[in-house]
Amino acid sequence: MASLATARQQWGGRLVLSEEVEHALQHGNPVVALESTIITHGMPHPTNLSTAQSLESILRSRGVTPATIALHSGKVHVGVSQAQLEELADTSAGLVKKVKVSRRDIAPTLAKGLIGGTTVAGTMYVARTVGIGMFVTGGIGGVHRGAEKSMDVSADLIELGRTPMAVICAGAKSILDIPRTLEVLETQGVCVATYGDKPDFPAFYTPSSGQTSPWAVKNASEAASLIHASLTLPDPLSTLLAVPIPSIHTPEGEKVQQAVEQAVRESIEQGIDKRGKEVTPWLLKRVGELSGGIALQLNVKLIENNARVGADVAVELARLQR
Ligand code: PSU
Ligand code: MN
């Protein structure tokens, strides 16, 4: 595993760890990475801020140190201050636009000293360098509908294939082509496992996408053994742990599905589907508008649920790693 001294050297003075993250990593205490694109581009203000704070406090209350990752003024931050969280979440007009930072955007965002929210791919890239093995988020990027023409396949899927880590999410949004997303994950050598009683691969707002995950784990201890096995292979591999949204939300989830279908239709009609990195944020915003705010409420519920599960798994995993 990467030592902090090595990581500092590799980043050449660009790495800033929060005190609590540094302490936890040095002592082998459980640490979970959190992304920041969801703050800068994925949710509207002020829910983006309250959710980011809530995720951190859920993790802490279960004995896990949160490492929210973001770029700021030429530095890579692993663990951000309250003030930085507020700045990331501030979407008022007139501010310099924040960058959505996938793998390819890390260097230019640093070189230009901009503020960047890291995507799943960007967050994994950074987390690995400091030896963090677990990451909690809402949904990953995937294969977009129509990708057989547009070739819009999220860098998140490729990152999962090259950066060994356990990523906990609620599946992939049905703004995406879920069967093809699962195909690419297989091609990339990523172990996809559903958490809980049923093997269904979840579709973010709803517990089932109609697809089945190749693997399943029943509880935190089974999840931790799987992740431990993946991370201790001769050439470590990633696990995508898919946690279904709790079933009490199913009626609202089905309403949001209708908004998703309409948003995807509109994106094609208006040519938004050809705008690269803007596609996902546009769809998220439009689903929010069309669902009258229900999508956002569900998004918060499911990501908080992921944080609870992720914390329990991280505690078990740290035990196995001692
Ligand atoms: N899905 C969500 N909310 C989000 C994202 C995805 O429900 O905020 C963000 C994540 O940061 C993810 C990124 O890594 O969008 C994927 O973007 P793209 O499809 O452009 O790779
Ligand atoms: Mn894309």
Explain what this protein looks like in three dimensions:
The structure is a single chain. The two termini are 13 Å apart. The longest helix is centred in the C-terminal third of the chain and has 28 residues, at 294-321. The chain is an alpha/beta fold and 322 residues long. α4 runs parallel beside α14 (294-321), α7 (120-129) packs parallel to α9 (155-162) and α12 packs across α13. The protein contains 14 helices and 13 strands. Strands 1, 2, 3, 4, 5, 6, 7, 8, 9, 12 and 13 form an eleven-stranded mixed β-sheet that branches. It has helices at 4-11, 19-27, 37-42, 47-61, 82-89, 106-111, 120-129, 147-150, 155-162, 178-187, 220-231, 250-269, 279-290, 294-321, and strands at 15-17, 31-34, 65-72, 75-78, 99-101, 116-118, 134-136, 166-169, 191-195, 200-203, 206-212, 215-217, 239-242. Manganese (II) ion is lined by residues 152, 154, 276-277, 279. This is Indigoidine synthase A like protein-domain-containing protein. Keywords: Glycosidase, Hydrolase, Kinase, Lyase, Manganese, Metal-binding, Transferase. One of its GO terms (cellular component) is cytoplasm.
Shape: globular
The tally of beta strands, per DSSP, is: 13
> Which structural class should the secondary elements be placed in?
alpha/beta
Number of helices: 14
Uncertain stretches of 5 or more adjacent residues? none
Largest sheet: 11 strands, mixed
Output the radius of gyration. Answer: 18 Å
Strand fraction = 15-25%
